[in-house]
Amino acid sequence: MSAHPITILGTGIAGLTLSQCLLKRGIPFHLYDRSPTPARNNYAITLYASTYRALCKELGISERVFLERPSKPTTNSPTSPSPHPPPRNPLRNTSTSQTPPEIHTPGLVIAADGVHSAARAALLPAIAPQILPYVAFNGRRELSNEVFEELYAAAFASSPIPLAIAHKIGDALLSIALVAQTANTTTLSWTYSRPAPPADPCFNPTRPVSSATQIPEASYAELAQLQALPQPFRDVFDGEKVRGERVLHWLMRALLVPSEELTKLAGKGVVLVGDAGHAEAILGGEGANGAVGDAVGLAGWIEENGVEGVERWCGERYGAWEEGVGRSRDRITAMHGEAEGKAVL
Ligand SMILES: Cc1cc2nc3c(=O)[nH]c(=O)nc-3n(C[C@H](O)[C@H](O)[C@H](O)COP(=O)(O)OP(=O)(O)OC[C@H]3O[C@@H](n4cnc5c(N)ncnc54)[C@H](O)[C@@H]3O)c2cc1C
């Protein structure tokens, strides 16, 4: 194995998984993040069994420990999603508990700095995520467990989707996910989404990243007009309750950096992984699964081959990126119907 040192930018799921895999193999690296603390807006992610099994192996922990969430069943199917969004903590704790590597001059830079990657923007300024034409608003609701039992529990119990329920009105999708439950309270995440026709007043694809909490008035008006919803959707999408909450205007970002650009960059010693290289829309996407796959695969490749010629890894992995991005676009269309509007850069 080559002794070239490695620099990883970003401690998201890709960067942390990669760092753990390299530590396990005794390969030195530096790990940087722009933020000194974990992300403030933590959210649950669904990892497929094939992904979390690979992760557990790298972390050296059992599936039971990884999936451990209060009083819920687990799945053993190799392809079905984990019914419990695994927390990031096992990964973060395991990674940060290791001895930091020695200082080296960077040889290979691995940009795992997310969909807004500064490394990608600096080196490939013409390439940016597309915004798919979908309106999507997301909020959180905390309820007492009594209210949950009274209004929600039966719908969740009979839902075919693990820990989530959904209701369609035309091409609009109303979904509710169970995020957490304590002895007294239940936290839900709700999302209202639909295709955005051209000039839709509820869709602002050019909003700055920092303006996700600015909700167009037209969106509140649209939610208030939802008529005769069945419970528990009536309770969650109640216009007055929604106005009192922190609501996020989600944008559906999709990205696939062209293969030839990746290869050129890798030839210069910079590899993009995770959302920095290929991003899938929040709704219908499986970006975290792809990010873990990149990290585990790249670490194994480096162990076998060193860092020279890493562009070959990019070429080998690219098919999975294309498939993932294509699949996620098909899924968001199937969830809502075809969008009339166009993707925006
Ligand atoms: C609400 C929501 C729900 C999702 N649900 C799912 C799901 O259920 N299943 C799924 O598979 N995927 C899901 N995803 C997508 C998934 O979260 C991403 O695909 C995944 O987090 C990408 O991991 P990453 O490590 O590439 O990037 P990120 O997780 O974005 O991490 C990037 C890291 O880089 C750091 N960084 C940024 N800029 C710099 C810089 N200049 N220098 C150094 N560090 C920097 C950031 O601080 C961050 O720590 C969801 C996404 C969202 C937003």
TrEMBL record:
Its cofactor is FAD. GO terms for molecular function: monooxygenase activity. The keyword Oxidoreductase applies. Keywords: FAD, Flavoprotein, Monooxygenase, Oxidoreductase. It comes from the Eukaryota. Residues 80-89 have a biased composition (Pro residues). Residues 67-105 are annotated as: Disordered. Pathway: Secondary metabolite biosynthesis. The keyword Cell membrane does not apply. Belongs to the paxM FAD-dependent monooxygenase family. This is FAD/NAD(P)-binding domain-containing protein. It comes from Mytilinidion resinicola.
